[in-house]
Structures are given as structure tokens and as C-alpha cells.
Design brief:
- This protein is α/β, with parallel strands linked by helices and about 290 residues long.
- It has helices at about 5-25, 70-85, 100-115, 135-145, 165-175, 200-210, 210-220, 235-250, 255-270, 275-290, and strands spanning about 40-45, 50-55, 90-95, 125-130, 150-155, 185-190, 230.
- Strands 2-1-4-5-6-3-7 form a 7-stranded mixed sheet, sandwiched between helices.
- Helix 4 (about 135-145) links the parallel strand 4 and strand 5 (about 150-155).
């Protein structure tokens, strides 16, 4: 057997093995999953059994504290409310700068909606799936499709690196394929990458493919499965200061405006960034110095 034939045989064996592993992950999902009284769950996938683990206390901030992303919040809120009422809604990709509130918005918006006294809203459940378990998303979809609630399935920091093929199963379940997405599910993802893949990965596909255009289209078509693209960009100094001021007021921290502004500017400069994440880190520092916890 020639070297090229050997490499081809190895490649085919790897593909068959990957397909078998994916099938195992899908088929091992428990068909006896029950929905408890919690409104948030973590999807735990393993070779032996998969389950929904209830989260009684979700780590999130109040919706009104998220500053500088009001337009994105309104758009995602409208989409989520449509879904909670059983109407048409789109999968959403929240992409952009680190620490600008992408995952915080998903969790805060869910928490805000489930507390509303609105008879038109169905039960809205948030399910988090880890990036490493994304290959079991079809199994999760099948499980929740049978349960009496509207499910927002959420994956934080979703991206794919060179050599990964699990993005293909995600494409199928989001839009296309025989099963498609169950009517009681939406998929929300956050990512620092607009197309969920690094630029060099797309460039490599373009340079090495027989038909570069088709190869690139295959890669970026994953993001096309999301009907909503919400971009999150670096905030201005004014927005950064407002973020901190809202946190300080909410947590009742006693500090003058002058001192707070001075510390905020210095804090951002030492970290080389201004974002919601950097803002809350400063607030925690100030609270700690005052003997408080936030």
C-alpha cells in the first residue's frame, strides 16, 4: 500500500470513529429526564448517562444594571418574549468584545422574564450546555422537546478551532436536517468570534481547497443559522463610568463621585480595557475595602 493510500485509510478510520462517538453521545441521553421546579438547568453529558441538573440560584445581575447595551437588550428581549408566548423567534448569536455583557444579558433577561406576572407567557427555562458537550446538542433537543416548557438552550463562549467537525452537527440541529429544531427550543450562543471560527482557519480553508469559495462558505454558514446577530463592542469612558456608578448605587457603597471617577480611570488603565467585567471587578474591590461583599 502506498503512503497516500495509507493516509487515506487512516483518515477514513478517524471519520468513522468520530461518527461512532457522536452516535454514542446522542443515544445515551436519558429518556426519563424529569423537569423539576427550577427555571434553570445545566446539561450534564457523559458516556453512561446525560441529565439536566437544576440550578436553584443562578449567578446573574439585575437587567437594569447592564449599561451600554440597551439596544441589544431590547432586541433580545423582544425575541425571547415572542418565544415565551409560543410565537416565532430566532436563534441568537451574541458576539463581540470580551466582558461586555453577552452572557450576563442572557441570564439577566431570563431572570427578568420569569418574574413577570403575565398570563400569556409560558414557562421559560434556561439550559446551559458546555462548549465541550456541544456534540450532544441533538440529544438535549430530543429530551426537552418532550417536556412542558419553552427552553432557551444557551452556550457561553462558543467557538471552533481548526480540525473540529462538531460544528456540522450544530448546523444541522439549528436549521436543516430531518429533525430540525423542536418548536419549544431556542439556541442562544455567545462568542468573541463573529463566525465562531478564527480568521486563520477560514483563510486556511480558502488557500487549500479545490474550490476556495465553497470551503469558506461551509465554514461561515454556521453563523447564518442564527437569525439574530447582536454585536457587542468596547465601551467609551463615559459608558464605563456609568456602569460603575450604577453598581455603586445598587450595592449602597459610600464613595464620592470624584474619588470613584479617579479610581475607575486608573483601574481601566492598569488593565488596558474598559468593559462591564472590569467595572464589576473594581466595584468588588471597593466593596471589599469597605468590609462588604457584592
Amino acid at each position: 500500500m502506498s503512503k497516500s493510500d495509507t493516509l487515506k485509510a487512516i483518515s477514513q478510520s478517524i471519520k468513522r470513529l468520530a461518527a461512532a462517538v457522536e452516535k454514542i453521545g446522542v443515544n445515551n441521553a436519558s429518556s426519563n429526564v424529569k423537569l423539576g421546579d427550577a427555571n434553570a438547568y445545566i446539561w450534564s453529558a457523559s458516556e453512561s448517562e446525560s441529565e439536566l441538573i437544576p440550578v436553584q440560584s443562578v449567578s446573574r445581575v439585575p437587567l437594569e444594571l447592564l449599561c451600554g447595551i440597551e439596544d441589544q437588550a431590547r432586541t433580545l428581549e423582544q425575541n425571547t418574549l415572542q418565544f415565551a408566548r409560543g410565537h416565532g423567534a430566532n436563534n441568537a448569536l451574541l458576539w463581540g468584545s470580551r466582558g461586555m455583557g453577552k452572557s450576563s444579558l442572557v441570564k439577566a433577561l431570563h431572570g427578568d422574564i420569569v418574574q413577570r406576572n403575565d398570563a400569556d407567557l409560558k414557562r421559560l427555562v434556561l439550559v446551559e450546555i458546555n462548549r465541550e458537550d456541544i456534540i450532544t446538542l441533538p440529544a438535549l433537543m430530543r429530551v426537552v422537546a418532550k417536556l412542558p416548557a419553552q427552553f432557551v438552550i444557551y452556550c457561553d463562549d462558543l467557538s471552533f478551532d481548526a480540525g473540529e467537525s462538531s460544528y456540522k452537527s450544530l448546523k444541522t440541529i439549528l436549521d436543516g436536517g430531518l429533525e430540525g429544531r423542536p418548536q419549544n427550543t431556542l439556541f442562544y450562543a455567545t462568542s468573541n468570534r463573529r463566525h465562531l471560527m478564527p480568521r486563520e482557519m477560514i483563510d486556511n480553508e480558502r488557500s487549500s481547497a479545490i474550490n476556495p469559495g465553497e470551503a469558506v462558505h461551509e465554514k461561515i454558514s454556521l453563523s447564518d443559522r442564527f437569525g439574530l446577530w447582536l454585536g457587542f463592542h468596547n465601551c467609551s469612558q463615559e459608558q464605563f463610568l456609568e456602569m460603575i456608578a450604577r453598581y455603586v448605587e445598587f450595592y449602597g457603597l459610600d464613595i464620592s463621585d470624584k474619588e470613584l471617577k479617579s479610581r475607575a480611570i486608573e483601574w481601566a488603565a492598569t488593565r488596558g480595557a474598559r468593559s462591564g467585567r472590569v467595572a464589576i471587578q473594581l466595584v468588588r474591590q471597593i466593596a471589599g475595602e469597605m468590609g462588604k461583599n457584592v
